[in-house]
Amino acid sequence: MGSILRIILQRLALGVLTLIIVSLVIFAAVNALPGSFATAILGQAATPEAVAAMEQTLGLDKPAVTRYFSWLFAAVQGDFGTSLSQANFASFAGSVADTGVTVADTLAPRFRNTLFLAGLTALIAVPVAVTLGVLAALYRNSAFDRATNIFTLSSISSPEFFMAYVLILFLAVLNPWLPSLSNISDDMTLGERVRTSMLPALTLTLIVTAHMMRMTRAAIINLLASPYIEMARLKGMSPFRVIVKHALPNALAPIVNVIALNLAYLITGVVVIEVVFVYPGIGQLFVDSVKTRDIPVVQACCLIFAAAYILLNLLADVLSIISNPRLRHPK
Amino acid sequence: MSALIWILGALIVMAGAGWLLRAVGQKVTNNAPKWRDMPFAVAFGYVVAAAAILAVLYAFVQAYSSDPIVANTYFYAWFVIVSFIFFAVVAWLFRLLGRAVGTAGSRKLFRQMPLTASFGIITILVYAFVAIFADFLAPFAQDAFPGAINVAPGGDPATGGDPNYLLGTDKRGGDILSRIIYGAQNTVGIAFITTLLAFFIGGTLGFLAAIGGGWIDQVLSRGIDVLMAIPSLIFSLLLMTIALVWADGNATFITVSMIIIIAVIDSTRVFRLSRAVGLGIVVMDYIEAARLRGEKFGYVMFREILPNATAPLLAEFGLRFCFVFLTIASLSFLGVGIQAPLADWGSMVRDGAPFIQNLSIINQEWVLQADEATLEMIGIDKMVRQASLPLIPAAAIALLTVAVNFVVDWMLHRSSGLKE
Description:
The complex is a heterodimer.
Chain A (H helix, E strand, L loop, with lengths): L1 H30 L5 H6 L5 H11 L5 H13 L7 H10 L9 H36 L4 H15 L2 H14 L16 H34 L3 H8 L4 H39 L4 H11 L2 H28 L2 H4 L3
Helix pairs in contact in A: 1-13, 6-9, 6-11, 7-9, 8-9, 8-11, 9-11, 10-11, 11-12, 11-13, 12-13
Chain B lengths: L1 H27 L4 H4 L3 H23 L5 H6 L1 H26 L3 H8 L3 H18 L1 H4 L38 H37 L1 H15 L3 H16 L3 H32 L2 H8 L4 H9 L4 H25 L10 H14 L6 H4 L3 H7 L1 H7 L4 H25 L5
C-alpha cells in the first residue's frame, strides 16, 4: 500500500511541477505582446502620466520575475485579476481595483456550466461506449462491427462543428425536439437544464463515444487470445459471459485510462461546441476574449484549461497504475 | 421527456419483435442450427437493422410528398440517402477500374481493398485535382462578388436558385461554388504546408535527440513534455491572440503566424514518434559503421536514419494532416484563422450558420397550417436550401478528413498483418 501512495505522490508532484512550468510559458507568451498593458487599457486616454500611474497601480513597473510570482500566487488563491474590458470602464472612474467585477467572478459560473456539460456528456457517453465496445468485440467482423467501425471512424474524423450543425438541422430545426441554442440561467430546474444542454452534450457524445468505443473493442480483442479466455471457452461458457466475466475486468485498465483521457479532451473540446450552441461556458468566454484581446481573461482560461487537462491526465495515469498489479509492484 | 418515452417504447417493441422473430424462425425451420443457437442479441440486432432500413425508406418516400412542408422536412434526409448511395457506387466503380487497369501489383492491391479505402483514395484524388486546378475550375475569382446576394443553392429558379451559381451566393454576393473550389486550394494547401513544416521541425529534433542522446535528448524531451501538457487547441488560441495583437489587422501576417504556430505545436507529436523510431534505428550496426567511418551528423541523420524511418512517418503524416486540417478549420471557424480575402471553408461555415437557425420557422404553428400561397410567399423552398450554406463547406472538410482516415485505417490494418 505504501508503494502505491508513493507512486501517486510522485505523479502528483510531477503534475504540479508541469503546471508551474506551463504557467511560466503562458506568462512568457503574454509578456511577448507589443506595447504596454496599461496603454491597452487606457486606449485613447494614454498620456505618459496616466500610463505611469496605471502601471504603478497594476504593479507593471516591477521586474517580470516579481510580476510572475505575484500573478501566480494570486491565481492560486483564485484571483485572476481584472478583465481588460471591465478595466476599460473602470479607467473612466479612475480606479481599477474597486470595480468589484473580477475575472474570477466572470469565470466561476461559466466554469460550473462547462463542468455540467462535460459531466452530462460523460454520463451518456461512458455507458454507451463500453456497451457498444463489448458488443463490437463480441460480434467482431460481423456486419454490425463493420457498420459501427465506419460510423465511429467518420464521427472521430469529422470536425465538431459539422456534427453540431447536422444535429441542429435534424433534431432542432426540421424536427422541434430539442432547443438549438442553450440559454442557461441559474433559476432553471435540473430537467430544463438537461434539456437545453442536451444537443451540445449529444454532439460531444458522438465524438467522444467513438474513440472510447474503439479502444474498448481493441482492448477486449487483445485479450481474447489469452489462455484463460481459451479455458473459459472450452468450459462451455457462452461468448457473452466469457467477455463480461473474464475479458472485461482485465481490460479495465486501458478502458479507464481512455475514459479519463477523453474527459480531458472533453474539457478542451467544448470550445468549438460552446461557440456553436452559444452555451455560456468557459470555452465561449475564452474565444470571445481571444477576439477582443482581453489578455487577463485569456491567461486565466488558459491556466484553467491546462490545469484540468493535466489533472485528468494525471488521473488516467494513477487509475491505470492502481488497476494494474504489474504496474503497482514495479520490479 | 416524451421523446425519451417514445425511444424506450420503441426499444421494448423491438425487443419483443426480436424474441418473436427467433421463436418463429425456430418453428418454421424446425430448429435449424442457425436459429436454434441464435443469441437473443443477434435477433434483436436483425430487428433493429430492419427498422432502420424501413425508416430510411420511409424518409426517402416522404421527400416526394405533395405537402410542401413534409417534402421540405425530409429534403435533407433524402439528400443524405442519395449521396450515400452515390459515394458507395463511385467507390465501387473506382475499385472495379483499379482491378482492371494498372500493373499486377496495383491490381492485387485493389482486389483486397475494402470499399471504404477505395472511397478514401478517390476522394483524396479528387480533392488534390480540384486544389491544383482551382484557377481553371472555378467559374469566378475568390474575391469577386458577381451576383445577387443570398441566392439559394440548387440552381433551380423555382426554389430560389440561379443556374449561374450552382451552389448559390453568400450574403455579399460571392459565388459559393467558386469559394468552395478556392477553399480547397487555400485550406488544404495551408494545412499541407503546415504539416510539412511540423514534420520538418519535429522530425529533425526527434532524430537529433535520438542520435545525440544524453543532455540534448533530456532537454528536448522535457521541453516537449511541457508543451504537450497544454491542450493544443487552447495553446494555439493563446498564441493566436498574441499574433492578432502583433498583426494589427494584417491578414498575411495572421495566416503566416498561424502556419508557424500550428506547425510548432504539432511538431511535438512528430518529435515523440520520430524520436522513438530513431532510437530503434540508432542502435543498429550500420549506424555504428557509419559513425566509425567518420560520417558527419547530417549524413547519419538524412542518409542513414531517415530512409529507414519513412514507413511509420508516412502513416503518421496522414493522421497529422487530418489533425492540422481540423485545427485550422476550427480556428478559421472561430474567426482567428485564415483571413479574408482568401476563401476558406472554416469561415464559410461561420458565415452561413444563421441560415440554419432561420429555418426553424418551419416548425412554427402558423407555418404548419399555412396554405401553399403563404408558403410560396415565405419562400420556404429557398429557406430549406439555404440552410445548407454552413453544411456545404463543413461537409467538404468532413469528407476529406474521413477519406484520409479511411485510407490510413486500411494501411494500418494491412501493415498489422490482418490479425484478430
